[in-house]
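Same chain as my last thread, 503 residues:
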Amino acid sequence: MPADIFIAFAYTHCGMKKLTNKCKDNVELLKNILTSEDILVFGFETKDGAACAAVYADGMTDKALLGEQIARPLSAENAPGTADEAAKLLQAPEIKKEKDAAKIADEVLAGNTALFIDGVSEALIAGMKKLSMRAIMEPPGAVAVKGPREGFIEDLKTNMSLVRNRLRTPKLQFKTLTAGKQSKTAIAVGWLEGIADEEIVKKIENKIGCIEIDGIPDSSYVAKFLAERPGSLFKPAGTTEKPDVLAAKMLEGRVAVLVDGSPIALTLPYLLVEDFQGAQDYFVSPYRASASRILRFLGVFISVFLPAFYVAAQLFKLQILPLSFLLTISGSIQGIPLSPSLELFFLLLVLEILIEASVRMPKYVALALSVIGALVLGDTAVKAGLVSSSAIIITALSGISAYTVPDLVGTTSILRIVFVVVAGSIGTYGVVLMTALILYYLVTADAYGAPMLAPFSPIVRRDLKDSLVKTSLYGLDKRPEVFKTKNETRLKNEGAKVNHGQN
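reply #2:
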């Protein structure tokens, strides 16, 4: 039975739609909505004998705080006449009033405590959540050699505080929304007032408000609903697990989306060039950062195109290879029963199976599986005459190169298989045609007013300073032009140049 229908059913059979000034009736009304056995009622009395009841979810509420901040102060005083008088007696830092029984039920399910007092027709909601959470540590998928090592966890308020600690300004705004009919997951939209585009903020809020789904276990669910092009092969939003990276992106004019229960934050608008930029690029020299970014681009290029060009060269254009290399390949492929395209497709499939298995296996087994398994399988396959040694080298190099940009591994894995199939069918012309189609798709992609291939298409000269080639900090005195921020200046260049010259 849907939650709304169940609540209406409970209201009807209780004969009440609103809270009364009777504590017993209010508790009964709430218990008819929340029928689970883990919803507990703690009853006590005031000094003059007025009945009080605290309703909470077992395991989600701090019982010690309940006794110290609610039961003890009220038990020592006479019964308050109004909710405001009761709130003054309580010692809890988070107190709010509520008359709607449905909203009270939601607060209890969220881990808060609902307090009912005889003579008071309103419930007091006290924030006393007690949720087990892991410690703040370096994210396993974003290991940094230099720079901060803090990472987001699965608690929304903790993640918001990590961002607040990085951006200690009143311009940092958070708006908390709720999505998921059954999960009622809290989603926080964060932005810097006066820097981020308010229209984008409103658009994101509207899209989150229109989400109609039973539950949202992770931020990836929200990303699907925020996508301007649903079903796209490329990411609909930027992702990060580090508060320093999120703060830096918000300072550029992006809007952040934090989801309760997920350690991954979303950023919008999203540009493809973001995935080639690492967090530590801003903590090393611009020369080192530029070299790293170019290597990442080459890694993605090799991962996608190398297997396809290997297949196309064997089937259609062997003369493009050097003679010595051609002789080596010719000697290695003799007696191979599979065609070059089937051979590469088979090896890429085996590679994906090994990666998938290593991710799901226990850590102490995954290393042995990925290393020993690959060596044993590769060596055995070559000796058995199923595949050539050159094909294994091409596959291994392609697989390793993909992880130079971890956020694009899923996309590059699919693209290289597609390119291998096209290369085996049409040859080099097919590779060129498929590349043109993908570039056309990326050029025409526009999300929240920002072209996906910016600053390369269209060319935004100012933003090229922090693309595949990074200039010094003093050259990044303006925010990215593509985001159309109201406040463009982020560094007073004149003073920086003076200080830089003195040093």
